[in-house]
Structures are given as C-alpha cells and as structure tokens.
Sequence to fold (332 residues):
Amino acid sequence: MESLLSVNGLQTAFDTESGRVVSVDDVSFHINSGETLAIVGESGSGKSVTALSIMRLLGKRGSIVKGSITFEGQDLAVVDERTMQHIRGNQISMVFQEPMTALNPVLTIGYQLTEVIMLHMSMSKKEARDLAIEMLGKVGLSNPKSLMKQFPFALSGGMRQRVMIAMALVCKPKLLIADEPTTALDVTVQAQIMRLMKQLCSEAGTAIMLITHDLGVVAEMADRVIVMYAGQVVESTDVFTLFESPRHPYTLGLMRSVPSIDEDQAELVSIPGSVPSSYEHIPGCRFYNRCPFAQEHCEKNVPPLFDTGAGHLSRCFEWKSLRHELGVGSHE
Fold:
C-alpha cells in the first residue's frame, strides 16, 4: 500500500549568527491513510521542526537542505508556495501546542473559522457560517452561535483548543499534524481533547501525526511510533512492540522515567545529562554520553538504523544488550 506521506532523508537547517545549525538530520518515516503515527522525544529532539518542515513553515532562516517529503505524489520540499498554500489547511492541517499563538486575538472566532472555510471550500459567507456553527458543535462547544461572536481571550484553554481542532478538521484534511496539542491543558481536559481528536479523525478517515513527550498519550492514541533524539530517528516500530520490547537505550530511559501504578517503585529513574546542543559536533552516537550501554566504538562511529526484526528499527550498536536487559531471549 502506498503511503499517504513519505519522508525520506530529511535534513532541515537554520541560519544563525553563529553559522548554520542542523535541527533535523536524515529523518525518514511514513504515514498511511487513516493511521496515527506518534513522534516522541524530549525538548530539542527535532519533533516540531520535522512537522514545520512538512508544512513548509520554517521562516526566513530555516530551509530544507536534503531529502524529500512526498504527499500524494508531490514532493512538498520543492513545490512552489502557491501549491503549499492550497495544501495547508485543505489537505494537511495542523493543531499547535498553544492556541493563543495560533488564533488572532483581535478577530472573532466566527470570522477566523469562516475565513478558513471560504478560502479552501469555495462556499458563500452564509454557507461557511452555517458550517462553522455546525463544526463548533461537533467539537463539543455549547451554544456555538453565541461563540461565533466571541474573541479568543474570552475562552478557556480547553475551549480554544477545541476551536483549533474545529478549524483544522473543518475541510476534512487527509492528514492532521498535532504538535503537543494538550500540553497547556489540565489532565481531565487533555483526555477529552485527545478522545475528541481521535474520534473526529476516525470518522473522516484522517491520518494523524501526533507530536508528544507523553508516553501515556502514545499508548492510547498511536498505531506506530518513532522516537527522536538530537534531530535523528533512534527507534521506529508499532506501539505494542515499543512498550513490550524497546530497542534503544533512550527509549528505555524514557519508559523508566515514567511512574507506574502496577509496580512498587521507590523512585523514578532519570536519564543523566541533557540533549546535546545543535551547535555541537558529535562524531559518533549522539546518545553516547548519556547511555548506560555505551561501548568505546560508540563514541567515534555513527550508528545506522538497524532492522532488529519485523521492521523494528533501532539506531544503536548495542541493541542486543537491551534484549538481555529486558530478559528477551536471543531466539526472538
């Protein structure tokens, strides 16, 4: 089956006063129609820059240096801006982490939502207004007619995020990119928003690319997962395999740093150190200085993505050591 989106060898860089900084380096993955792919990693791993590369929203200083982003036969890395304007919002939509930065504070919710509809769906103002009201109701907002007259500042964080989801899904895009959409919300609202997004995308057959650092959200939402670290993909597999048998030390560290209600756990295990700066030149494995399984050869040699079986990819020379650590037999 041909993928809806296929990213191959993506390298994205930014020009700074100190020179060019590579934020995403040799990233490859695919998303099939209707599935949810989660991209996991801590701050600075390149998750959001990957999403912005797909949307071609990198600003004046950012650029795609290498690689391709194939969406329904078109390479988004090289198409002109007019083509991208048609694709954004219409075929690929994005929900951002903080809706107050995405919504215009001086325009009403109704104006902003109807503007999106009229731009992409060739509707009259009345048709667009009717659809906007219907969509606000679909995302669980009460009294949508009255809400159309409100400004963003008058809404709670959860309500604003529901408006953003309505705006992103009103044109029934084929792909929704959700960049940590619930980080600024409280826990109960987070769960409501994630369920709503999954439900609406399922009804429309929309694929989801979910960017998050929350492994609980990943377990509930994702079909497949890629783990990113320091601008690279370090592990890729289906969600069940990832939790049962992680094959990169960074993934294992992330899982051990999350509290469990099923086990007696005296204290959380943290990953020592921090993500290296994009300015640093690292000759070997980028996780070397934080890795409990590191060997001498890891410091100077760049690990490729090994296929450890059944398409489970790991960027680690010592991935077999993790199997022993987790008690997985060599017969697997």
User: Anything to note?
Assistant: Residues 1-91+173-308+317-332 form a domain with the Rossmann fold fold (CATH 3.40.50.300).
